[in-house]
Fold Phthiocerol/phthiodiolone dimycocerosyl transferase.
Amino acid sequence: MTTATVIRPLAPSEEIFAGSEVLVGYSMRLFGRLNLPALAAAFDAVVRAYPAFGAHLEPDGRGHMLVESSGGTPEITVVDGDPEQLLSGARLDQRAALVALCVVRDGDSTGVTLVTHHSVADACHSLAALSELWSCYTDINRGRAPDVAPHRFPAAVEDLLLSRCVEKMSGRPVVARPLVVAETPETAGPGVGDESYLLPLTARCRLSKQKTAALADVAHRTGTTINGLASAAILLTEAELRELPLSELSYTYSVDLRNRVFPPIGHTEGTNVLGFADFVPTRATGDTLVGLARGISDGLRSGLASGVVQQTPLHIPDIASGPPPRAPGIVLATNWGRIDRPRLPEGLRVNDFRTVMIAKPDKAGHRLQQPSGTIIISTFDDQLSIEIHHPVETTAQQRRRVRLLAAHLDPAHVVGAA
């Protein structure tokens, strides 16, 4: 065991991401001149302000410990290449650091990806850090010292729920989304240690601003949400591709609990402040996009009102000790919501936002090999995006999946079905 300062052991909601070393990337596609020294200084300021990012993980025989690191800020990797290859040149190892910054340049086009370990930060947490990174960068470019408030080590969701008197309910828990992470092909990627990371490809369905606005209008008029409509489109697509009736599908998705408990939890106060919800289509919800979307939205409201969703993280140890999931009808997705445009100096603009999720081989056997891959929903620059991180051997199927998603989300089709 290390002689460095041990912060604490990982909680079950965090440990599930340590065995396969799950990392999540948040990437801005930029055009213009990037000031690398300013970016390095901004990254240093953020890592110093977020102490969990400057730590590392060490095994202790039962799980992993969060341990302070004695070195400086993790290095930024900078390579010339295709910015779509978000992690080109990355050196990633949870035994050294839990954050990385990857820069891939092609002339004036650049991809800058903040990579965080899923054990210490979920999307809400990491996106807050990403926003501060670009705010610091902008201040430094303008000759001002970066102003980043120091953060405490984030708490585990189990402790945050306990302090709010949220208790585990009896009965069958919903499918635990964290146990089903990072669908990836068995191809070599960047990595240090016994095994390399597995790098998936990414397929994407991205709507125009006009179509996204029309979809938002449909959601408002029909009593649902854009997320409900996107989720319904995913279900309809999976039913067709898997050749299963809708009633044999089970849609499981993560729910940010920060504003669903009292007192609310700050963006960076916890590591993975996520609950989970299930939706199974029934005859009552029908087989239309709007009907399914309403069913998903109504089910979430009911689950939150009863407190079922809020307590789902407390079931993770039970599910982790049980048999791995094998149901062919499970569909998994996560929604990161609306991604804010970062504050940038003149001469640099952001064109797009991309995601990436990677992991090492799953030794515990809890990673469900669902054919749809890892699905991440987000909205950036008023454009709905559904990204699917998938094994290379399913590339042809993903093209069909994207075409079907686009067809189901076409506003003209949705309006006709509303």
About this structure: The radius of gyration is 21 Å.
